[in-house]
TrEMBL record, chains A, B:
Keywords: Oxidoreductase
Fe-containing alcohol dehydrogenase-like C-terminal domain mapped to chain residues: 190-388
GO molecular function annotation: alcohol dehydrogenase (NADP+) activity; butanol dehydrogenase (NAD+) activity; metal ion binding; methylglyoxal reductase (NADPH) (acetol producing) activity
Name the UniProt record assigns to this protein: Iron-containing alcohol dehydrogenase
Record-level GO cellular component terms: cytosol
Family: Belongs to the iron-containing alcohol dehydrogenase family.
Domain Alcohol dehydrogenase iron-type/glycerol dehydrogenase GldA: 9-178
Organism the protein comes from: Duncaniella freteri
Amino acid sequence: MNDFSYITPTRYIFGHGAEEKVGKQAVVNGMSNVLLVYGKGSVVRSGLLDRVKAALADAGVSYVELGGVQPNPTDDKVYEGINLGRKEHVDGVIAVGGGSAIDTAKAIAGGILYDGDFWDFYAGKAIVEEALPIGVVLTIPAAGSEGSGNSVITSHDGKKISLRTDMSLRPKFSCLNPELTFTLPPYQTACGICDMMIHIFERYFSPTSGVEVTDRVAEGLIMAIMTEAPKVMSSPVDYEARANIMWSGTLAHNGLCGTGRAEDWTSHFMEHEVSALYPEVAHGAGLAVMVPAWMSYVAKRNPAKVAQFARRVLGVTEADDLRAANNGIERLREFFTSLGLPASLTSLGVKASDIPVMVRRLHENKGAVIGAYVPLVAQDTTAIYESAL
Amino acid sequence: MNDFSYITPTRYIFGHGAEEKVGKQAVVNGMSNVLLVYGKGSVVRSGLLDRVKAALADAGVSYVELGGVQPNPTDDKVYEGINLGRKEHVDGVIAVGGGSAIDTAKAIAGGILYDGDFWDFYAGKAIVEEALPIGVVLTIPAAGSEGSGNSVITSHDGKKISLRTDMSLRPKFSCLNPELTFTLPPYQTACGICDMMIHIFERYFSPTSGVEVTDRVAEGLIMAIMTEAPKVMSSPVDYEARANIMWSGTLAHNGLCGTGRAEDWTSHFMEHEVSALYPEVAHGAGLAVMVPAWMSYVAKRNPAKVAQFARRVLGVTEADDLRAANNGIERLREFFTSLGLPASLTSLGVKASDIPVMVRRLHENKGAVIGAYVPLVAQDTTAIYESAL
């Protein structure tokens, strides 16, 4: 087990009507005039935004609005939010939505208090020392941004750039009402489930040994997600199942499963290059393809942990590690397919001729050698993309 | 799943030399002159206290000392600490030790800022609105107080009274160095392992349904503890095993496993009456006896969750719930015995003639009906104590 320093200071308000607590939580966290960040469409149409505004008004908290955040959020909305927030002297940022709204809110919360360009944080040129307090009303369990200190923003030239902070960009509070997820379309629900599972994988498939406790917690979370996922797919208004998925999505990415070990985000990074080039590809859908492809490739060199996963989580009984690993990967593929997720890049519209571009960008962004569970060079990542076609 | 509000804002500094960070963490958390709370003997003899003092001095933090905290800590040390802390104008309290030192530090940190008697908090007459910041250097993985908002203090007339706060008494930081636990005597190690397992049980054996995610996390933690426990017993300086046990002890009691469900602390309360009457009985040893006795009794009325535990955690394959439950309880007893823990109250020196006293006190303290998984009256708790003899 590696040494670590870990803090997760977000207050989770979980359950029925959680969004109605947003006003009180804003006040408790020192907010009196907030920037409300949201996407477009559903949060407005559903009446959620109006309920959030009413809760803020009831608590005496004023607000200005930044709507229209897009999936794979871009820097233009961040700049717009920083300018608006400064002009209106906001003292807090509240996101209403999923990962895109939350990640944008985080970039704004850090950027408003920073003299330079907010991209400095994402480029590793500056550390987010302070940020306005951030609140969340979550509508999509997937990205886990409601409990993390992370944010992913896409630049003008199509690069998805991740920022990870220790504490400064962790929300002060997150309101999680499973009922708000009843109306999520099935494909989006499935993509979210895949995304949260892979947030756990990226920590679980680690070269660090002696981490039985976080292994078992990670395996437990995956098992819970795999038990509850078919329920939400077949019965979208099953409160308990939605609640289990929602809370799993937060625990998947608040850092708990990563304590004490090296992580390996290779398949996430490989997917980022797919959806950067093909913006219509949902992150979770791209992951459903890339992760089994990555697992198959790395299992050949280092099957042990994949075999452990196959045995403990998927009930594989095969004694040989590589065979157990491959059986498990097959079951995982079947699970993703059963949720309606794609099994190949081709089915997502990705062309073989674009693989060299994705490989080039991947290694430009992340270095010549990427990965910890199995370090990979361009030859390897090319083979993985090709196997995923 | 029940609605919940949950926050765990403690920074965990985990690993080699974690105690050396105590000075920096004190400063980060606004401390400049702290009350150092510790027991007697081992933290002094081992040189740990000197290292902590040096780390504080290096960071420019001054300190006054309150040593001599006893196991099952009593209110006299709390009053002494409150008086000393006020006189010396301390702005933080740092515990060096296990649950007794930490629980005492918490009572002091809340009491110093409170005009009335600190017992008001424990008697439910007042809520801890504010407290001095609390820091921890942990030496005994067991009580989980390093990550909880809870504190247990024993009154002059021998009552162990628990206080649970939402956030105000949660430590700001806890330094967890597994090496500090290498020298724990085997019996104390075993008692700690039992204590942390039962912190999970008290949340797991709940009447609340629809909590697959926290069930799986709880089961994972128990499995990890049961895997690592024999290693630390046979090889006390096994760093990885000690690290897994230490981190498990924190996660067992920081509230994670209780999110979204009713808890049932009956067996803890029943043990408290044992060790209140027989102060020489270690809490974990008393639990090793009381918990299987409690489980056997409640399984007759409600076997389902005990059977789930037996099957998922202990590998029991029996189809009938009650039989599965009983098989599991038998395996659990064997596990505790294998650690050198007692299997009966008699072996702890408890007399049958004291059962009526313990039952009377139990229900005086906790009400005529106690428990959530299976509600119990005096007739039931009498039968459980008798079965544990």
